[in-house]
Write a structure and sequence with these properties.
- The structure is a single chain.
- Helices cover about 20% and strands about 45% of the residues.
- By secondary structure, it is an alpha+beta fold.
- The longest helix is centred in the middle third of the chain and has 13 residues, at about 80-95.
- The termini are far apart.
């Protein structure tokens, strides 16, 4: 994993500079294709745990690059199963051990254009996961906080992560395909 400096404000003189983690295999590909669109697999782990009083809490991380809260997400490494990526990302990003219960949704993101010009689109796998152990804390520099929140007390989420939480909370037995419904 390597880090890249990304201009967080489109080149304006007073700007925030964001550090984003870029897996080495992507950095290598970019040397050949430049900023052309890159098709990647992503994994999202909606991690829940029960409390002593019968409530359910969900784990969220605060991203270092945007400051926004999200479920644990990451890029699937070459040859890695998306469910294994969810387990790995939970350990790397939040210091917790999880068990993947099932695939909840699979969709394709819109084309993302990063401030450095890189273009990416993801086939995204959203997994419902059960917390096994570990105290959540930011571990790899991609996040500044990691914490459990009770249902109904979630931090502010962007539209994409609100939709993810909608399908995770719906907990329907079948896997959804295509665009996630609005939350």
């Amino acid at each position: 994993m390597s880090w890249s400096v990304v201009d967080g404000h489109g080149g304006r003189p007073e700007r925030e500079v964001l550090l984003i983690a870029i897996p080495d295999f992507i950095r290598d590909l970019r040397t050949h294709i430049g900023t052309m669109p890159l098709w990647l697999s992503g994994s999202a782990a909606g991690i829940h745990r029960g409390t002593g009083d019968g409530r359910t809490e969900w784990l969220f991380v605060r991203r270092a690059d945007t400051g926004g809260w999200s479920v644990v997400t990451g890029i699937v490494d070459p040859g890695e199963h998306p469910a294994q990526a969810a387990v790995r990302e939970a350990a790397e990003e939040a210091g917790v051990r999880i068990e993947v219960e099932r695939l909840v949704w699979q969709d394709v993101t819109d084309l993302i254009v990063y401030d450095n010009g890189d273009q990416t689109q993801y086939i995204n796998h959203v997994f419902r996961c059960r917390w096994i152990g570990g105290d959540p804390h930011p571990l790899d520099g991609e996040n500044t906080a990691a914490a459990f929140f009770a249902e109904g007390e979630f931090p502010q989420l962007d539209a994409e992560h609100a939709r993810m939480m909608g399908v995770l909370l719906a907990d329907t037995p079948e896997c959804g395909l295509g665009p996630m419904p609005d939350a």
